[in-house]
Amino acid sequence: MSAEERARIQVVAGVLVEPEGRVLIAQRPLHKHLGGRWEFPGGKLEPGEQPVQGLTRELREEIGVLVHEARPLIRIQHEYADRDVDLHVWIVTRFEGEPVGLEGQQIAWCPRQALPQADLVPADKPIVTALRLPERIVALEGADYSVLPSGQDFVSHRPINARLQGALCRSPSDVAGEAVRLVSRGADFVLLPSWFGSGETERLATSLGVPVYLSGVALDTAWRSGASGIHEIAG
Fold first, then answer.
1. Strand residues in the chain grouped as ranges (E)
2. 155 touches 165 (CB < 8 A)
3. How far is residue 155's CA from residue 24's CA, in Å, rounded to a whole number?
4. Is the pLDDT of residue 4 over 60?
5. Helix or strand or coil: residue 63?
6. Can you give the pLDDT at residue 90?
7. For residue 227, how many other CB atoms are within 10 A of its CB?
8. If I label 100, which of 24, 85, 180, 217 is the partner at 20 to 30 A Cα–Cα?
9. What is the per-residue pLDDT for 2?
10. For residue 149, pLDDT beyond 80
């Protein structure tokens, strides 16, 4: 199948988190693509539909909850054998109703630390990394992460639940190229030195498939640009 013939599907997914920290996942029906595996609830966007509109509609139809507040978490591109998926992922910060599987699917509240062992569909796995990181990175080390020198080789096959490793892009002239190189060497997330335009940031954040953090902007601006948050680490 040529690149022109491959389907590109726009999908939205919601991450519902209980006060105790458990996260809702749903099992795909057996007759569907990747049936039997688990995913964060959501579905395909309709033509012309904005992600937050699709999120509200899909979660109402699929699990019977009404979304009141949500924010972007991460954007992911994933290539399957027969299709390409653009995945818009949102954290649902306030919702109404008790989730149920309205389409006959099994749902489960999964402890956050158990998500790496869940049999998630491949496109959803970067979401697990994003959930371990804060909205604001203000120090070189946190409970679940460390920011390492950008010249260091990252270990891309670390044990499950090991500390995440990120790096700060330092090249003022080739931020995108440096970010791609860092991810190819195994960085779990990248810190960009500044916001360099909403469209360009969105394209880079989507194509990298890992959480991206911006500097010198408000959180709302970062989220609108496709980033997962902001950072205050000096270059």
1. 7-16, 23-27, 38-39, 42-44, 66-79, 83-96, 107-110, 136-137, 145-148, 164-168, 189-191, 212-214, 229-231
2. yes
3. 30
4. no
5. helix
6. 94
7. 28
8. 85
9. 47
10. no
Structure tokens at 129: 């990394």
DSSP string, 162-224: PPEEEEE---SS-HHHHHHHHHHTT-SEEE-SS---HHHHHHHHHHH-S-EEESSS-HHHHHH
Q: Among 122, 119, 131, 118, which Cα is nearest to 188's?
A: 131
Per-residue pLDDT reduced to its tens digit, 14-65: 999 988 889 999 999 887 888 899 999 999 999 999 999 999 999 999 999 9
Tokens of 38: 């688990």
- Reading the block at residue 229, the tokens are 């948050």
* Structure tokens given for 223: 């989220």
> Identity (one letter) of the amino acid at 28?
R
